């Protein structure tokens, strides 16, 4: 009798497996569909970017490289990059003041400016750089915080110290209770001293980290034509596949800003045709980095949101 029941048991287990698999596929299809629908809702303006489900969007088994609309002035489809942008945008939409962390050159200013331009085109957007504060720097910050709406970005806030930091904290505390204070964001390096900045960070409910370019190297294939279109608007210059592959395999310690500067220098002596490997600087022709698996973070990768 026990052996006679094995076929029925196998059939039952097979049906249960099929049902669970169907639920997983359905949930994944729902997630991807919702993401695509959400991104389409943001496409009312002419913008540049990709949408991505993990490392790549998969449609019928092929990888998609076509740009998808997201935020003005941005490009990229890496999972960590897109996730950071969406989380920053969610904080902006909620009205919560935001801390945006990331290495130099990852695009913190570009992301915040793009979010503000998308949600409030034409509205006031001010930038105050704490790395080079002049004598009137605090006066400028005070004036912006007393303004009517808009957005204020305080760059390199981890460079503020001493009396400057104390005064900045007092100004932000006053602005929190004002009825018409602007939305405020800070940018920080990922290795700032949290203890020293505790008095400043208490005003900010959300923290998002933008990843370095080495954590989303697939975006180089979108960034290169995006930047070339800005540098050579007539479209007469493109990047050859071998050169693009070489750029994609570079380590980019200076992140997106370094890629921009490399292409900017190339355009100075190459205005048409195709960029070849010989046109690249030596640091781009020497590959010495180890690719990180998206599923196994490197030792210095931090949580994107706390």
UniProtKB/TrEMBL annotation:
SUPFAM superfamilies: P-loop containing nucleoside triphosphate hydrolases. Gene3D superfamilies: 1.10.8.60, P-loop containing nucleotide triphosphate hydrolases. The keyword ATP-binding applies. InterPro entries: AAA_lid_NorR (IPR058031), P-loop_NTPase (IPR027417), Sigma_54_int (IPR002078). Residues 200-268 form the Sigma-54 factor interaction domain. The keyword Cytoplasm does not apply. Transmembrane segments: none annotated. Keywords: ATP-binding, Nucleotide-binding. This is Sigma-54 factor interaction domain-containing protein. It comes from Paractinoplanes aksuensis.
